[in-house]
Amino acid sequence: MLKVERLQAAYGKVQTLWEVAFEVPKGAIVALLGANGAGKTTTLKVLSGLLRPRSGAILLEGERIDGRSPTEIVRRGIVHVPEGRGLFPDMSVIDNLLMGAYAAPKGSRRARLEKVFAIFPRVEERQQQLAGTLSGGEQQMVAIGRGLMADPKLLMLDEPSLGLAPLVVEEMFRVVKEINAFGVTVLLVEQNTRHALALSNRGYVLEAGRVVLSGSGEQLLADPNVRKAYLGL
């Protein structure tokens, strides 16, 4: 579905991605792993059109999308749920969700809301509440629900478990698996390496803006370098 070829990117004169290449097959969960500053979030920003690449190619279902605007990329089916959730705290939960459907036909919004509420019953219960008054776990549910309102082919999640209590983390990964089972391809950036690889069909490890390891989730969980660097084993 998604193919990234020799991607390079920079913030001003500081280059952050070097020849990054990976693939996300249709229907898969693929994890991007690495320490802070490895280039994971930058990669997602380039894929979603928030940062223009210096060079390389991004292909979605065979069509190049690098250099297109974020709105065009959303309309082609790539949706980015950012680290930190990015909700509008003084708006209601329902209004935050509807913001995710800004590029969708109005007639389809009710059906999409029903799908989100089926995945997140608690979000339905809180739909009239201000987003800023929710717990961290509830806010993350709203952020993911807002992404689903755009009816993505590929959902990119940046650190969905960050700052959540252990029981909520377990629930969050269960939800990611459920979303994938509904037919949504997932690209997951996650510091919780063990959970991410256990869930993923394939993983890529970034270091200093370069892909240094790749393999199935099982292969990377068993890799001694990954176990030492990210699992403390």
Commentary on this structure:
This protein has 233 residues and is of the alpha/beta class. The chain has helices at 40-47, 70-75, 93-99, 109-119, 121-125, 136-148, 166-181, 193-199, 217-222, 224-230; strands at 2-11, 14-24, 29-33, 55-60, 63-64, 78-81, 154-158, 185-189, 202-207, 210-216. The strands form two sheets. The protein has a six-stranded mixed β-sheet, with helices on both faces. It has a four-stranded antiparallel β-sheet with strand order 2-1-4-5, with helices on one face. Helix 3 runs parallel beside helix 6. It is globular.
Descriptors:
single chain; 233 residues; 4-stranded antiparallel β-sheet; 10 strands; globular
Strand and helix layout:
Layout (H helix, E strand, L loop, with lengths): L1 E10 L2 E11 L4 E5 L6 H8 L7 E6 L2 E2 L5 H6 L2 E4 L11 H7 L9 H11 L1 H5 L10 H13 L5 E5 L7 H16 L3 E5 L3 H7 L2 E6 L2 E7 H6 L1 H7 L3
Parallel strand pairs: 3-8, 3-9, 6-7, 7-8
Antiparallel strand pairs: 1-2, 1-4, 4-5, 9-10
Oligomer: single chain
Shape: globular
- Please bin the fraction of helical residues: 25-40%
The percent range for strand residues is 25-35%
How are helices and strands ordered from N to C?
Answer: EEEHEEHEHHHHEHEHEEHH
